[in-house]
Amino acid sequence: MEHSFDIVSEINTQELTNAIDQTRRELSVRYDFKGINTEIKQEETQLVILTADEYKLKAVRDILESKLLKRGLDLKILGDSKNEYASGGQIRSVIPLVAGISADKAKIINKLIREQFPKIRTTVQGETIRVAGKNLDELQAVIQLLKNSDKIGIPLQFINYR
Questions:
Q1: Which has the minimum average pLDDT: 4-13, 105-114, 144-153?
Q2: Which of 28, 29, 56, 162 has the greatest CB tally within 10 Å of its CB?
Q3: pLDDT of amino acid 161
Q4: Superfamily classification of domain 13-96
Q5: Cα separation values, 29 from 24, 33, 57, 105, 110, Å
Q6: What whole-number distance in Å separates Cα of residue 15 and Cα of residue 4?
Q7: What is the pLDDT of residue 153?
Q8: What is the pTM of this model?
Q9: Radius of gyration for the chain, computed over Cα atoms and rounded to the nearest angstrom
Q10: For this UniProt entry, which segments traverse the membrane (predicted)?
């Protein structure tokens, strides 16, 4: 009997929205942010943080990251931020949201699996990778291999396990 699962890279947008709301609430009651205009905007493919200076920006990012972790989101969903100075002496940070498995990442994942588990078959289906094999233990080992690999650099979820 053949067993399989799918590898995807998706962002739970509801949990992301909740984490951003929690961050905004915490900033509204923090003493060091009294009277400082700080905005966090969630757009379709990025987050935009606008605040007074780099110190405040780092504090906002730390709070946001802790809220993401508490809500079970991988910090790899946050891409490399671009900081720029905005009007009024403020600083703006644009943080791309990372989702989807690109063709390059799919190649890296396939190569990792093939090197360690030659009997396991992988099939790329758009932004999803189907992994199939006869041995359940090997499939579990594939999941562990991918979770522990630092070569991939994107958040992965494992779904449709049968």
A1: 144-153
A2: 56
A3: 83
A4: YajQ-like, domain 2 (3.30.70.990)
A5: 9, 8, 16, 41, 47
A6: 27
A7: 85
A8: 0.84
A9: 19
A10: none
- Is the domain spanning 3-10+100-159 CATH 3.40.50.150? The answer is no
Alpha-carbon gap, residue 132 to 97, rounded angstroms = 29
Beta strands in 61-142 (DSSP E): 82-85, 91-96, 121-125, 128-133
CA diameter of the chain? 65
Structure tokens at 14: 């509801």
Write down the domain spans for the chain. 3-10+100-159, 13-96
Domains 3-10+100-159 and 13-96 alike in fold: yes
Question: What number of other Cβ atoms are within 10 A of residue 159's Cβ?
Answer: 10
